[in-house]
UniProtKB/TrEMBL annotation:
Template-independent DNA polymerase which catalyzes the random addition of deoxynucleoside 5'-triphosphate to the 3'-end of a DNA initiator. One of the in vivo functions of this enzyme is the addition of nucleotides at the junction (N region) of rearranged Ig heavy chain and T-cell receptor gene segments during the maturation of B- and T-cells. This is DNA nucleotidylexotransferase. Belongs to the DNA polymerase type-X family. PANTHER family: DNA NUCLEOTIDYLEXOTRANSFERASE, DNA POLYMERASE TYPE-X FAMILY MEMBER. GO terms for cellular component: nucleus. GO terms for biological process: DNA modification; double-strand break repair via nonhomologous end joining. Its EC number is 2.7.7.31. SMART domains: BRCT (SM00292), POLXc (SM00483). It catalyses: DNA(n) + a 2'-deoxyribonucleoside 5'-triphosphate = DNA(n+1) + diphosphate. The keyword Coiled coil does not apply. Its cofactor is Mg(2+). It holds the Pfam family BRCT.
Length: 522
């Protein structure tokens, strides 16, 4: 089969649309076209329909004319992870009149233009690369573009095509982390992250050729899964006493690896036994962890996160109408569930230092507060270090467990109706609630107070993912001789801090293509 034939089969455009090449999109009419002399077509292949629809919508909102289907009126064709040859073959088949005038661009031109709010000038790096000739019988195209070893130079959506491998590698990585085997942890975490960014599924070992981040150990796991469908190392680990105990104990809010290992060493194997022990002392956090264990270990859904957002916003705006509450963490990356809900609250510099306390008090007053742990700002302790990635930052923050009325979430889902507070109940009423129908769910919430000038850096840091952040800092340090943390960016050569109002500006300081939050699921 010819390359062009196989491309048609793989659906650059859906079959039923192929005949109607001159049809013009109707959803464009909702938005005014600001840039009259260009018309964009975005190729669906290797991108997926949902991402494509999202990007089309985004461009239209910004005043670009975008066609649903390929036609003679298209001037700029935008594609992700397809080579010039592939797109050119396909265009030849369409027999367009002005094919030789078409600008054939990779997604970087599109994202640069979206960030600039206008079509940017086409640079060499925006143009599609010619792919080295493949042997016609080779079933696996090699990567068309060089894939970076840094997650911050890759686009990792939630559409993970290599889940069978990443699930296994993640379990093994976690165990290396438990065992404080840093180098093995890093190797497994990086390989996992790279697999998540691939626009195709690995179907044979040769597909790993030329990719960074794979060593002997990670290759061996992938090879075994390709042959047997499972990894014996993972199977063994899932039956391992110590691993099971560590997983179980650290699933309690407030229990870290040290405590988990202590309990394991003392012979404990179940949470029931730990809770029943007369000798063990628990912190306030762990007591809350046990009390709300089931709810906290039951993932937070997006409607729940949105209901919490509404509650927090209402209270925050009551005290500071100008403050901005931003939902961040996994939900900002487009995840539908999370283990908690993370919010940044950005305030003008002059913000009352008791602001966060007032919010917490109000939550308490409304009967919504089950637990809180206030952490004061430690800006004076900030040390610029390129050696170690410091997960914690120096902002004032509060780790909470909130009591979310389930009816509130149901109402939001059913009718998106307005929010009312959960019915207040006594905090100490746990035994009583168990005998009644429980109409609320305990939700883990993080609130972080961020001064406006540091907002973009805090947003970038708190959006994650963990691996994306690690690689962003590693890239910044090794490739740019700069230091990045949740507060700012320091240029070691020029000895200056670089200001940024938006995440786009931070990426630009680092000479990185902008990666959207939903592409940071590394
Ligand atoms: N973060 C980080 N390094 C850590 C912990 C957190 O860079 N060690 C950043 C990345 C994500 C963000 O803070 C919020 O942290 P979590 O809530 O733990 O992560 P999440 O991606 O929101 O995961 P989940 O969806 O499960 O809440
Ligand atoms: Mg989170």
């Amino acid at each position: 089969m010819s390359l062009a034939g196989s491309l048609g089969g793989m659906g650059i455009i859906p079959k039923r649309k192929r005949q109607k090449v001159t049809e013009v999109c109707s959803s464009q009419s909702k938005h005014q076209v600001r840039f009259q002399d260009l018309t964009i077509f975005i190729v669906e292949r290797k991108m997926g329909s949902s991402r494509r629809s999202f990007l089309m919508d985004l461009a239209r909102k910004k005043g670009f004319r975008v066609e649903d289907v390929m036609s003679d009126s298209v001037t700029h064709i935008v594609t992700e992870n397809n080579s010039w040859d592939e797109i050119w073959d396909w265009i030849q088949n369409l027999k367009l009149l002005n094919a030789d005038k078409l600008k054939m661009l990779n997604i970087s031109w599109f994202t640069d233009s979206m960030a600039a709010g206008k079509p940017v000038e086409i640079e060499e790096r925006h143009k599609l690369q010619v792919q080295k000739m493949l042997q016609s019988n080779s079933p696996l195209p090699p990567p068309v573009v060089t894939i970076s070893q840094y997650a911050c130079q890759r686009r990792s959506t939630l559409n993970n095509r290599n889940k069978i491998f990443t699930d296994a590698l993640e379990i093994l990585a976690e165990n290396f982390e438990f065992n404080e085997n840093e180098s093995a942890y890093v190797a497994f975490a990086r390989a996992t992250s790279l697999l998540k960014s691939l626009p195709y599924t690995i179907s044979k070992m040769a597909a790993l050729d030329g990719l960074p981040c794979f060593g002997d150990q990670t290759r061996a796991i992938i090879e075994e899964i390709l042959e047997d469908g499972v990894s014996s190392k993972v199977d063994d680990l899932l039956c391992d006493e110590k691993y099971k105990a560590r997983k179980l104990f650290t699933s309690v809010f407030g229990v870290g690896l040290k405590t988990a290992d202590k309990w394991y060493g003392q012979g404990f194997r179940t949470l029931e036994a730990v809770k029943a022990s007369k000798d063990l002392k628990f912190t306030k956090m762990q007591k809350a962890g046990f009390l709300y264990y089931e709810d906290i270990n039951n993932a937070v859904t997006r409607p729940e996160a949105e209901a919490v957002a509404q509650i927090i916003e209402t209270i925050v705006h009551n005290y500071a109408p100008d403050a901005i509450v931003t939902l961040t963490g996994g939900f900002r990356r487009g995840k539908e569930t999370g283990h908690d809900v993370d919010f940044l609250i950005s305030c003008p510099e002059t913000m009352d230092e008791n602001f966060l306390r007032k919010i917490v008090n109000k939550l308490d007053f409304r009967g919504l507060l089950l637990y809180y742990d206030m952490v004061e700002a430690t800006f004076e302790k900030r040390k610029l270090s390129s050696q170690k990635y410091d997960a914690m930052d120096h902002f004032q923050k509060c780790f909470l467990i909130l009591k979310l009325n389930k009816a509130l979430v149901k109402n939001r889902v059913l009718s998106m109706s307005s929010v009312s507070a959960a019915r207040p109940t006594d905090e100490g009423a746990e035994p009583e609630v168990k005998t009644q129908i429980k109409d609320w769910k305990a939700i883990r919430v993080d609130l972080v107070i961020v001064p406006t000038q540091q907002f973009a850096y805090a947003l970038l840091g708190w959006t994650g993912s963990r691996q994306f952040e690690r690689d962003l800092r590693r890239y910044t340090n090794h490739e740019k001789s700069m230091i990045l943390d949740n507060h700012g960016l320091y240029d070691r050569k020029k000895k200056i801090f670089l200001n940024a109002k938006t995440e786009e500006e931070i990426f630009a300081h680092l000479d990185l293509e902008y990666i959207e939050p939903w592409e940071r699921n590394a």
